[in-house]
């Protein structure tokens, strides 16, 4: 009897489910910036009871107390303009919304763009890939045995890096669509989304007042340097470095709530502070966000899951916890929104004194 020999060939991956959305990297391509525009905030037009958004919903459940609501039974592709306005309102309130089994992934590039454009002109990314025969507004997130480029760009001691997509824009994104086409087998590849309103509220009153009125420089310089370091001559550099100065604490135009608006991917320094002071403060704030599991939610994907997050009151991070080689394939559409609104330092309503008392009485 001849013994069967085990094949040492690595198992071939099945072909991608969405070949039209495969990433395309063209080192010679360039894209235009959107430029200044008047933002017409959809969330301000919404009926706050969300009748158009939720009329077919079979289940609406909170993912965590401070961030995230999952809505079942609603197809984004079928929503009226009023329904989309209500989506903007609810997303501003909850930070992110999760929709399952969406036919949105099948309606084609132009229809997808049209729906996302309801929330603002679509951003074109400076280095992330788009589909070869698809519009530059699509950001493709593709991690697979046959393309480990994004995995390389996220490789650090920990892949967790909370950020706002493209905060160095003069008008950074608001509501953003992240659409999962194929998720790795088993578990893994979740996105963690965290409430920056809650992150701000959790700071002591006198500390909050110290942050209000500050501004910080946001720049794409570091991610672009990383793209060059990782990919050399094949680096995609479609746009020059983008830079903007934004308030450290911003006001959401829909909810009026204050949010922390610095992130570890793009915020370089606090304006007017010496490097050591700025580094110390930013390191504290980035750690505060990363440790804040109590104001974050974790979204698990299935093919056809769409997460909509509002970048003005949340940050998010990839997890990259599944085995290298498993395919994770998604696309993002990123509408730009308002110029960040600075929070005003409020009159002291006694909160700082109460804070001091808590310290004196050792109640903290
Ligand atoms: C992103 O930052 O837009 C992607 C997040 C993810 O891949 O989970």
TrEMBL record:
Coiled coil: none annotated. The keyword Metal-binding applies. Keywords: Dioxygenase, Iron, Metal-binding, Oxidoreductase. It holds the Pfam family TauD. Residues 60-334 form the TauD/TfdA-like domain. It comes from the Eukaryota. SUPFAM superfamilies: Clavaminate synthase-like (SSF51197). Its cofactor is Fe(2+). The keyword Oxidoreductase applies. Belongs to the TfdA dioxygenase family. PANTHER family: ALPHA-KETOGLUTARATE-DEPENDENT SULFONATE DIOXYGENASE (PTHR30468:SF1). This is TauD/TfdA-like domain-containing protein.
């Amino acid at each position: 009897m001849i013994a069967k020999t085990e094949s040492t060939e690595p198992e071939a991956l099945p072909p991608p489910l969405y070949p039209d959305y495969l990433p395309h990297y063209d080192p010679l391509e360039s894209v235009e910036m959107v430029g200044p525009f008047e933002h017409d905030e959809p969330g301000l037009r919404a009926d706050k009871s969300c009748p158009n958004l939720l009329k077919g919903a079979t289940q609406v459940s909170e993912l965590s107390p401070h961030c995230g609501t999952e809505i079942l039974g609603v197809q984004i592709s079928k929503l009226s303009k009023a329904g989309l306005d209500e989506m903007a309102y609810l997303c501003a309130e909850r930070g992110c919304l999760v929709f399952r089994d969406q036919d949105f992934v099948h309606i084609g590039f132009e229809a997808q763009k049209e729906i996302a454009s309801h929330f603002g002109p679509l951003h074109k990314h400076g280095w992330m890939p788009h589909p070869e025969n698809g519009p530059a507004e699509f950001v493709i997130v593709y991690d697979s045995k046959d393309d480990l480029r994004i995995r390389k760009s996220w490789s650090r001691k920990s892949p967790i890096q909370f950020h706002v997509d493209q905060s160095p824009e003069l008008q950074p994104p608001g509501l953003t669509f992240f659409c999962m086409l194929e998720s790795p087998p088993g578990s893994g590849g979740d996105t963690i989304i965290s409430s920056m309103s809650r992150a701000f509220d959790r700071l002591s009153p006198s500390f909050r007042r110290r942050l209000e009125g500050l501004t910080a420089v946001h720049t794409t310089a570091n991610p672009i340097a990383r793209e060059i370091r990782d990919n050399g001559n094949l680096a995609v550099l479609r746009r020059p470095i983008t830079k903007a100065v934004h308030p450290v604490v911003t006001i959401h135009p829909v909810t009026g709530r204050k949010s922390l608006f610095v992130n570890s991917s793009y915020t370089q320094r606090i304006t007017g502070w010496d490097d050591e002071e700025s580094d110390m403060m930013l390191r504290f704030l980035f750690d505060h966000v990363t440790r804040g599991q109590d104001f974050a939610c974790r979204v698990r994907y299935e093919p056809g899951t769409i997460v909509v997050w509002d970048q003005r009151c949340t940050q998010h991070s990839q997890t990259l916890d599944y085995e290298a080689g498993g395919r994770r394939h998604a696309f993002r559409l990123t509408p730009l929104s308002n110029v960040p609104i600075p929070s005003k330092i409020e009159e002291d309503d006694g909160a700082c004194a109460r804070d001091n008392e808590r310290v004196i009485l050792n109640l903290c």
